[in-house]
Amino acid sequence: MLALGLKIPNLTHPSVRAEDQVLEVFGQKPEFGFTPRDHIDLGKTLDLIDFESASMASGEKFYYLKNEVALLELALVNWAMQKCVAKGFIPIITPDLVHNHIAKGCGYAPRGDSSQTYAVEDHDLVLVGTAEIALAGMHADSIIPVEKLPLKYVGFSHSYRVEAGQNRESKGLYRVHQFSKVEMFAYGTPTMSDHLQEEILDIQRQLYSDLGLHYRLLNMGFSDLAASASRKFDIEAWMPGRAIYGEISSCSNCLDYQARRLNMRYKVQEKENRFLHTVNGTACAVPRIIIAILENFQKADGTIAIPAVLQPFMGGMSTIPSRKASQ
After folding, report:
1. Taking residues 93-97, what's their average pLDDT?
2. Is 175 an annotated catalytic residue?
3. pLDDT at res. 163
4. Catalytic residue of the set 132, 157, 175, 231
């Protein structure tokens, strides 16, 4: 019975519909006096991304970031972490490996034919698909005093995903097996979780507006909800080289779904403990943001402008220069 019960998804928020709903659109699509190139072409031409060598070393859907884009990844991580810390989030560098039951408790299937998670053979460990999993694991089997809530973390980890599509929309950096990600995660009482989701969503909007991106906010439909999510908002940025919007973040209110499975509670008073609510949201999924930057800020002379907010994290560099890739 317990195994069957664990397969039951979360309760769905009343606002969720059958189809995704576009709620807001931010910024303007860039206008080019030339045909914009996609990040794969730009990455090869400017010697920024090497898929071929990574394929030889690690297999398909891996990559080397080189030159200015290697620095861009580090800049994005540092910038996103600092922005979240300024909003009251506690910075955490998380483990990339967790026990099976932690991933399962978060709503991820860690083993089996349908799993999208890398498992370590002969060990009770899996590679995380997001820092959300390790951040939830921090307080497994714990009781948090109510006066310490809400508890807000921003975590950095590498993320690992087995699935990597082969269609046009999934090419290049868009869907890969390993990537860097900054994730916001919050614990609260049932009366706090809706507000925490709005707070995280506000931070996401600030981050992507500060980068100068054109993006849209969606309330995701039934079919796009993970088992753990009661309500999920996605943000999709315009990617002109692909001529489509692409997901760059999500924000989910999981209510007490994860807390019940990981036995995470808060103390109301002596001998009265209740299940916490958890909320998570992407601050920066690095490869997706790199795509958006390369494709939106490319210039006719072959250079790429670096967003002003990132320049202090790149030694004052304002432009990725035009160059021919090394052979």
Report:
1. 98
2. yes
3. 75
4. 175
